[in-house]
Every structure is written in C-alpha cells, then in structure tokens.
TrEMBL record:
One of its GO terms (molecular function) is magnesium ion transmembrane transporter activity. SUPFAM superfamilies: CBS-domain pair, MgtE N-terminal domain-like. The lineage of its organism: unclassified sequences, metagenomes, organismal metagenomes. Residues 138-202 form the CBS domain. Pfam families: CBS (PF00571), MgtE_N (PF03448). This is Magnesium transporter MgtE. It comes from termite gut metagenome. GO terms for cellular component: membrane. InterPro entries: CBS_dom, CBS_dom_sf, Mg_transptr_MgtE_intracell_dom, MgtE_N_sf, MgtE_transporter.
Amino acid sequence: MMNEEYINNVKELINRQESEAVKEQLANLHPADIAELCNELNAEEARFVYCLLDNETAADVLIEVDEDVRKEFLEVLPSETIAKQFVDYMDTDDAVDLMRELDEDKQEEVLSHIEDIEQAGDIVDLLKYDEDTAGGLMGTEMVIVNENWSMPECLKEMRQQAEKLDEIYYVYVIDDDGRLRGVFPLKKMITSPSISKVKHVMKKDPFSV
C-alpha cells in the first residue's frame, strides 16, 4: 500500500543506493502505482527508480506521472535515453504527447535517435497539429476516411490502412479540411446501402466513443 512509511522506506533505500532492495519494493506494483511513488520523489530519486525499470514499464510510468514531475525528469535525461528507453516503447499518440513537453531543439535531438523511421515520421506529422485538432486527437493507429466517400470507397481505403493495424472497431471521419467530424462503426459499413455517403451514417459525436 502506498503510504508515507512505504515512501520514506523507498527513499531511504535509494539514498543508500540499494538497487536490489528498491527493485523488490517495486516488483509487484502497477505502473500507475510506481508513478504515484515517483510523484513523491525528487528528480534524482525518480531517476534512480526509472533506471531499475524495464523499458516498457518505464514508458508506462512516464505517461502516468504528474506533468510537472515528468517535465522536470525529462530535463535531466539525455535525448538518446528519451528516444530509446521511452519513445520506442510508446504508442504514437503517447509519444507525441511526451514530445510536446520538450522544446524544439530537444525534440529534434530525440527524433534523430529514434531507430524506427516510420514511427519518427508519424511523430513529426502529428507534432504539426495542435492538440485539439483531428490529427492531434486521433494518433496514427486509427483508420481515417472522408465524410463524402461512398461505402465502397470507404471499404477500399479502410483495407489499405488496416494492413498496419492489429484491431479496428471504429473508423474516424474527417472533412475536406482535415477536421474531425465523427466516427463510423464498422457495423454501419456492413448494413448501409453502397450508395450511402459516410456523412449520412456516421456518429457525429466522436468523443462519445
């Protein structure tokens, strides 16, 4: 249980540089709980904890910690570490949220260390959007279609985009200016007449998904 006694005990172990003992304390914790712990630590103590985590857990924890704690932590981390220990293990939209907390120079440095060229390109594309635009809200793991397309056009495009995805439940609908207009449940594609336009059968409130 995360209480003051537990936190103080971890801090003491960190101050004594007892890595194995700290690992034992973290072993059964969910990333959200480790994030809660890190919120109570200073930057150097949090850095000690992060160095003990596997890359995937560390990436999850970094997303969960308070924004001010994350920002302070990112400031002391080398760009290569951010790229290879965090960004490489994040979904694209989470990686973009993280990158937005860096200044432009450090963003470029981090991008230069990302080995997956396609992921780096996706991040660059999404960084061009404001957070509240369709591109900024959706991420690249989504199928996107135009509201003016017919069902056959929609299905053709969905098949092309879906080759890179593991699971699809909703298709996101944009207008000609790239603004998010709604979502399109896959069931609608099956049950709607082929002459129907996407905009006539989509759900117009994308944030209710």
